[in-house]
Amino acid sequence: MKIVSSQALSNPAYFKTGIKSFDTAYGGLRSGLVYLVSGEEKSGRTSLALQIACIASRDSVRTYFLDCGGHIHYLRLSRIAAHWGADLSKIKITFPRSFKEQERTIIWVADTAPAGSLVIADDFTYLHRVQMVGDVNIDKSLFHSLAFQMACLKEACKTRNLTSIFITDVHDVPPKGITTPVASAITTYFADVHLRLFSDVSGLKMLKVVQGLPTGEYRLRIHEGGISED
Question: Which of 86, 113, 134, 173 could be cross-linked to 117 through a Cys-Cys bond (beta carbons 3.0 to 4.6 Å apart)?
């Protein structure tokens, strides 16, 4: 994933995703923004995030990757890295063991990551869901913390040109017959762009632009080296 400039849009930097048609249509992921990537497990969301980080590393961009849900497997990372010729020394992976530790890590990254860095929180709402007890008074503070974490990184994106990708699970809302990101009232509020990964009726993986960019859908294939167009 190269970072390229675009004269047409006041020279912002873009992170390439490795999905050719998406990158052609939008330039990639514009720096300085907050991205929400939602999807069910095995939809390709973690592979996409690792791929973006690996491509960025070739241009010496630092990535801070919070593996909140424990989804990263070294073999998978090494294969994606080899496919894209990544410099793994540029990708720092942390494994928060509690929701409080996740909060501390995000505050630290927001305060200290070099300008232009990429920040990825994979399964951002997992530890939040684990800690919820069903008591409104207790759980309210957890939602406040979730919002605070996104607000911290959004501010850093604005002031120091960080780029943040929050990856979340989805759940069904039966009365409405729709699927939404977990904690959608918070995650969609802070996101500048929402991308959704899902499987269509035939089982094909799809990437859909939900908000923040002109609409588009892309058929994907998950393979040993990452994720690409089908």
Answer: 113
